[in-house]
């Protein structure tokens, strides 16, 4: 037991009237409950709750309840028949999640105690925390007593005291509760109905997993698919770049020829590219005929403004860019820094600003940072001496809704941080310092050399351009640790002159280089987060993206889980640090577009729903009105899924050519692949079929036509090995004499050129087989230093992604530790696409395996599909004729 730490004034305020009973405080997590107890004073630890003289504290452990399943309302909904859709319950009910009945019973018992006369909602200060509490309060009948709301922006003792002094009536957050309820039931309506409808209309005979869809999930997936389609549709085009070296009075440089852009130029036609080979030859001849050119130069300063503070999405984007962290990994670290370490303010925020009265707190935080040794302590000290800048821009209460920006908190004692927590904390501190510093100033140089062209190009002027950028005043970049320019140095043509023209310079070597255009790369998680934030547009301008707030996909608190859900449901995979859709995802989007499901895949429309939820929070739209819009939206989706005809989906598409198997039918496209027109479910006379998935590579029409025409396509990218690395491969189509049918073959090359070199990101723990060496995290895996240094041929290794689940350094450390196993974890996906949970174990062989928690009935909880209770493989069922191969089919590393 500890002595109360509250001030005497505060203590008296909290204890007015001896006749007042105890207050039941419901926190969202045990750690928060214990932090509250540490501030409020003496408490007895009763295991599942804490009790003091004036308070009883317990916790929810996140979501204890979930919306009931359709069959809970009516047994007929055990059938997924599309004829039973739409499912629109008159009243939505919540039911306990697995294993949570006991905790709910305890909360209900505490709430019914005669000495408890009021309740305090201490769940996270936001829409999700409000939903967690309100479901618990209704289920456990806590709302029969007066309810107050504890709204905490930070978990430091001082902030907790301030929050208790500012308790508000629970009814003051009714609009937030309405928005939270609507978000839940809206997602339920769209998800349940669309998932059942799509599964029944698209699932093939041998397929077991559902075709999941969701109000936010599906538009987000569409952004990933849209980029993949661009990549697959890209046709490489040959172009040439011309460079020439120049010199003037000992000043040497190289410049690139600038091809004038014509009207109607596409995005591949850039000033440095010439696509006409005949023109390249003429330009080169002109250049070689001219020994001099006329140069001009402009030198001017360019100011770069400091960034705004971090909100959660911008923090996730920066961590992905710097460290390749997933959004979920960053959120987990930020949440630990908020809850466990008390070093950050509330992280699930969409604001990049602070309240107007926060200036004194900023100065106090800087004083604490300046007292610490090291580079950032020095930066904080100089900032205090020089004075804060940008305060009017950053301290703006009008741009804050529920929470302000993520900033460091006041902490006298700095705990020792490691791994992800240390990296994320440093990012936040650096951004905090940078935001209050002055602009950076760059010295920019643009130098042009003009050479008249001859021959058929007479009258044209060939322009060669080179630029340089050097940092003159670091400004805020000192805090960010980024003081580099573009690496180019250009001494002035005329010393002391910022602008000159007409200087005659000597032309040196002319170089012509042939290249090919490449498609834009797949989306990084940082880019996807930005697009989710801005309703599907990749807007990099910070101020413009701020104007799009409220119309994005999901919220900062939910975006990480949405991305993880796409990976978990086998719709997306991480390939070399970027997000790639699976073949199943591309097929889903193709069908949704063809049956014109209204808005289900539209980022813009779904963003408008998010704005409508915000309007409910602000009292601009009623709960009833938005619910009816959700219901009508659901009816439209169901009607489209019920009425479309598979036979007409691809009716407008030309056939791909004659069937190679029977020679009589024509190869036509379907939702599942490319089949002979005589290959029908009723009385088909031909079995020819090309499935749309091949080792993780979607087979589009272009590839299918190539196989039918030439029997071979490749080498091409898009294949993925079981470690998530991109491969190049060649697909062949030929007749197998033994099987007496046409079959596909695949030959794999090495990993693609964009495979990054392996880099060490951090040290985890001692190597369990040789403690003199360490287990390190690289950009590809967790591995022993011995293996990286080539000292041995085999040593402990753990992939960074196991069964579609990304592993954190903390989980990997437990895996390599003395117990050789992690805690039981959720989020794994089996080869059949089933979600399961289990502990990751390190076997004696050095390979990883699973240990599954027991459950009632002797079965193994969460065991992957295809295993029995002991985790052993069952004999696979025989697939029906014509069924689709597993969507998860991936090659081993070649």
Describe the protein's topology:
Elements: H1 8-13, E1 22-27, H2 30-40, E2 43-45, E3 50-52, E4 55-59, E5 65-67, H3 70-73, E6 94-96, H4 101-112, E7 116-122, H5 127-139, E8 147-149, H6 157-165, E9 168-169, H7 174-202, H8 217-233, E10 238-248, E11 251-257, H9 277-289, E12 292-304, H10 312-323, H11 327-339, H12 359-370, H13 375-386, H14 391-394, H15 419-435, E13 440-452, E14 461-473, H16 477-480, E15 499-516, E16 523-524, H17 525-533, H18 542-547, H19 559-568, E17 572-575, E18 578-581, H20 583-595, H21 603-617, H22 623-643, H23 646-649, E19 657-658, E20 666-669, E21 673-676, E22 689-691, E23 693-694, E24 697-698, H24 701-710, E25 712-720, E26 726-736, E27 741-751, E28 760-767, E29 770-778, E30 781-784, H25 785-788, E31 797-799, E32 801-802, E33 805-806, H26 809-816, E34 821-829, E35 835-842, E36 848-851
Parallel strand pairs: 1-4, 1-7, 7-8
Antiparallel strand pairs: 2-3, 3-4, 5-6, 8-9, 10-11, 10-15, 11-14, 12-13, 12-15, 13-14, 16-18, 17-18, 19-20, 20-21, 21-22, 23-24, 25-26, 26-27, 28-29, 29-30, 30-31, 32-33, 34-35, 35-36
Helix pairs in contact: 5-7, 7-21, 7-22, 10-11, 10-17, 11-15, 11-19, 12-13
């Amino acid at each position: 037991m500890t002595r109360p730490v509250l001030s005497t004034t505060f203590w008296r305020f909290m204890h007015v009237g001896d006749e007042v009973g105890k207050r039941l405080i419901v926190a969202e997590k045990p750690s928060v409950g214990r932090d509250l107890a540490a501030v409020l004073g003496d408490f007895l630890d009763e295991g599942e709750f804490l009790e003091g003289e004036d308070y009883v504290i317990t916790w929810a452990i996140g979501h204890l309840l979930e919306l009931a399943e359709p069959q809970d309302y009516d047994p007929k909904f055990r059938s997924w028949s599309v004829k039973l859709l739409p499912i629109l319950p008159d009243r939505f009910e919540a039911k306990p999640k697995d294993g949570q009945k006991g905790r709910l019973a305890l909360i209900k018992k505490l709430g019914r105690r005669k000495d408890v006369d009021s309740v305090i909602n201490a769940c996270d200060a936001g829409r999700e925390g409000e939903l967690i509490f309100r479901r618990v309060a209704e289920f456990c009948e806590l709302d029969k007593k007066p309810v107050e709301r504890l709204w905490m922006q930070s978990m430091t003792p001082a902030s907790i005291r301030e929050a208790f002094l500012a308790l508000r009536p629970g009814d003051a957050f009714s609009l937030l509760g309405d928005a939270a309820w609507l978000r839940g039931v809206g997602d339920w309506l769209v998800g349940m109905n669309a998932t059942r409808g799509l599964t029944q209309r698209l699932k093939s005979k041998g397929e077991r997993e559902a075709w999941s869809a969701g109000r936010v999930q599906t538009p987000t997936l569409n952004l990933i698919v849209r980029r993949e389609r661009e990549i697959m549709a890209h046709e490489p085009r040959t172009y040439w770049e011309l460079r020439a070296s120049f010199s003037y009075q000992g000043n040497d440089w190289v410049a690139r020829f600038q091809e004038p852009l014509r009207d109607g130029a596409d995005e591949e036609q850039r000033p440095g590219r010439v696509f006409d080979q005949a023109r390249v030859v003429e330009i080169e001849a002109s250049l070689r005929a001219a020994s001099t050119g006329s140069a001009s130069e402009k030198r001017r300063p360019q100011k770069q403004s400091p960034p705004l503070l971090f909100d959660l999405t911008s923090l996730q984007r920066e961590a992905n860019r710097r460290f390749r962290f997933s959004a979920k990994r960053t959120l987990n670290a930020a949440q630990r820094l908020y809850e466990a370490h008390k070093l950050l303010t509330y992280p699930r925020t969409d604001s990049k600003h602070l309240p107007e009265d926060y200036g004194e707190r900023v100065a106090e935080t800087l004083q604490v940072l300046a007292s610490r040794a090291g580079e950032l302590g020095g930066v904080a000290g100089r900032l205090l001496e020089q004075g804060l800048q940008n305060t009017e821009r950053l301290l703006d209460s009008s741009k804050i809704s529920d929470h302000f920006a993520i900033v460091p908190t006041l902490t006298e004692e700095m705990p020792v941080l490691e791994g992800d927590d240390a990296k994320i904390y440093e990012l936040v501190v650096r951004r905090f310092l940078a935001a209050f510093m002055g602009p950076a100033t760059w010295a920019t140089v643009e130098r042009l050399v003009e050479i008249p062209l001859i021959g058929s190009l007479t009258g044209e002027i060939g322009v060669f351009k080179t630029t340089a950028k050097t940092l003159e005043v670091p400004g805020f970049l000192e805090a960010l640790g980024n003081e580099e320019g573009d690496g180019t140095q250009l001494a002035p043509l005329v010393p002391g002159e910022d602008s000159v023209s007409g200087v005659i310079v000597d032309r040196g070597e002319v170089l012509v280089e042939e290249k090919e255009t490449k498609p834009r790369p797949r989306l990084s998680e940082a880019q996807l987060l930005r697009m989710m934030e801005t309703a599907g547009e990749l807007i990099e301008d910070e101020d413009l993206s701020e104007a799009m707030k409220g119309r994005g996909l999901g919220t900062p608190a939910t975006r990480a889980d949405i991305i993880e859900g796409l990976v978990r449901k086998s719709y997306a995979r991480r390939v070399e640090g970027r997000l790639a859709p699976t073949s199943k995802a591309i097929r889903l989007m193709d069908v949704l577009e063809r049956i014109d499901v209204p808005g289900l895949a539209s980022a813009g429309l779904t963003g408008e729903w998010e704005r409508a939820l915000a309007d409910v929070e602000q009292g601009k739209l009623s709960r009833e009105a938005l619910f009816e819009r959700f219901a009508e939206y659901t009816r439209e989706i169901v009607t489209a899924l019920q009425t479309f005809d598979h036979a007409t989906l691809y009716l407008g598409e030309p056939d791909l050519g004659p069937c190679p198997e029977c020679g009589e039918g024509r190869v036509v496209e379907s939702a599942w692949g490319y089949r002979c027109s005589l290959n029908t479910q009723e009385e088909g006379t031909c079995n020819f079929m090309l499935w749309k998935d091949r080792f993780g590579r979607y087979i589009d029409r272009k590839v299918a036509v190539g196989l039918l025409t030439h029997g071979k396509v490749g080498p091409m990218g898009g294949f993925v090995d079981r470690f998530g690395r991109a491969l190049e491969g060649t697909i062949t189509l030929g007749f197998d004499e033994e099987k007496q049918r046409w079959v596909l073959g695949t030959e794999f090359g090495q990993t693609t050129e964009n495979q990054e070199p392996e880099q060490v990101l951090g040290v985890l723990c001692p190597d369990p087989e040789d403690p003199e060496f360490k287990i390190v995290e690289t950009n590809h895996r967790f591995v022993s230093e011995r293996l990286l240094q080539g000292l041995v041929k085999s040593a402990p290794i753990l992939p960074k992604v196991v069964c579609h689940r990304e592993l954190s350094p903390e989980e990997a450390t437990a895996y390599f530790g003395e117990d050789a196993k992690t805690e039981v974890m959720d989020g794994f996906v089996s080869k059949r696409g089933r979600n399961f949970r289990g502990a990751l174990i390190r076997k004696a062989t050095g390979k990883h395996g699973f240990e599954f928690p027991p459950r009632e009935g002797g079965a193994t909880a969460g065991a992957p599909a295809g295993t029995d209770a002991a985790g052993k493989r069952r004999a696979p069922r025989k697939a029906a004729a014509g069924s689709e191969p597993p969507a998860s089919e991936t090659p081993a590393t070649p």
